[in-house]
Amino acid sequence: xxxxxxxxxxxxxxxxxxxxxxxxxxxxxxxxxxxxxxxxxxxxxxxxxxxxxxxxxxxxxxxxxxxxxxxxxxxxxxxxxxxxxxxxxxxxxxxxxxxxxxxxxxxxxxxxxxxxxxxxxxxxxxxxxxxxxxxxxxxxxxxxxxxxxxxxxxxxxxxxxxxxxxxxxxxxxxxxxxxxxxxxxxxxxxxxxxxxxxxxxxxxxxxxxxxxxxxxxxxxxxxxxxxxxxxxxxxxxxxxxxxxxxxxxxxxxxxxxxxxxxxxxxxxxxxxxxxxxxxxxxxxxxxxxxxxxxxxxxxxxxxxxxxxxxxxxxxxxxxxxxxxxxxxxxxxxxxxxxxxxxxxxxxxxxxxxxxxxxxxxxxxxxxxxxxxxxxxxxxxxxxxxxxxxxxxxxxxxxxxxxxxxxxxxxxxxxxxxxxxxxxxxxxxxxxxxxxxxxxxxxxxxxxxxxxxxxxxxxxxxxxxxxxxxxxxxxxxxxxxxxxxxxxxxxx
Length: 491
What we know:
Layout: E1 8-9, H1 13-26, E2 58-60, E3 68-70, E4 73-75, E5 91-104, E6 123-135, E7 141-150, E8 153-162, E9 165-171, E10 180-185, E11 199-200, E12 210-219, E13 225-234, E14 237-241, E15 248-253, E16 257-260, E17 289-292, H2 303-311, H3 316-320, H4 333-347, E18 350-352, H5 359-372, H6 375-383, H7 394-408, H8 412-433, H9 436-444, E19 448-450, H10 467-479, H11 482-486
Parallel strand pairs: 10-17, 18-19
Antiparallel strand pairs: 1-11, 2-3, 4-12, 5-6, 5-16, 6-7, 7-8, 8-9, 9-10, 12-13, 13-14, 14-15, 15-16
């Protein structure tokens, strides 16, 4: 399931205050990555207390202390009293908006990096650009529209938080032919389904901030260069504001994210059309969106019902069935391919022979199939060491593909083997990792599926003693395991 990190907070000031008291009572997370006081300096439990030009951060890209492009910070003459307190308006459009979203790494694309209350473990650092719109008087909604670069191509996403409901509408990469994906969910504190709901950022959250001092701070992304701003903080959260107005220009939290608002956070107009909830793409009336845990009206189904939906999926029985039935077998590799190709053309609206594809096309197709897979199927395969199990997260697979592409390009026979292996793997993913709804959606969008190549490559070229050539052969053997189950061999 795909989730984007959204700036969220508890429902009330009281809840936030209780959480702060809990943090103080339990102690901090111990700063497990050993970040220095420039990258991290919380307003609680730091001795000496966090001061001017500490905890200012920058653009991070990894967990090591030096895996960050720190901004610049220079103290300036301190005023007798601070300027205007930070202002987070109840109605505003922040466009443009730049951010690095940070959260626990739960998947290779870092889509599930919802902010946590601890920096422990491997974290995701995901750069986003776009706009943010906030309205807490009439529509009570926070919306992000961001462009995200992933290993599978550029994804454009709209994220809406309204009450305890959260919607993520992903426009998948261009080669997915307009396929969209909607995730409906109800976030819970710390990701615990039994915990209290998490709501959009409360309008008065800045009331908790304490004054640090005045600094000349570098603003990332070439927005303003350096600015003289007032530095405020609350726990691990830091903000920099224009002293005369309180308009927030920059925010940093070392394990939640960096956010830059070039035009600040003072009141501004909003477009009411942006606050339509649920998004129309998430309702059953919209036929070109693959929906995850949404009911017919486009609202999230309860967690228990979502789990039950996955378990009761109409094709789940096939995931548990290891031995194919007789109509899906062949007497040889070539016959098996012929038999399965008939079933493929029956299920897929658009197909073409494997030899009419380029490897790059097949790899992009597989990235889309990975996006739209039902993880519950793979859970079954992994638990029983089934050959249909995904061999690795897509990010790791793509790194392997890059190396295999280079090796296969050195030999014509290797190139054919490499391509044919991808055809088999793409068909296996389509057949055994997608729901029927996902297949119908791709059919409606005209996605072309490869047919299985009838030729079985049985040996490496003469230069197979080379490690990179052998890697191509091994990858091919791992992809054509269809014959392990679909060949009707008699004893």
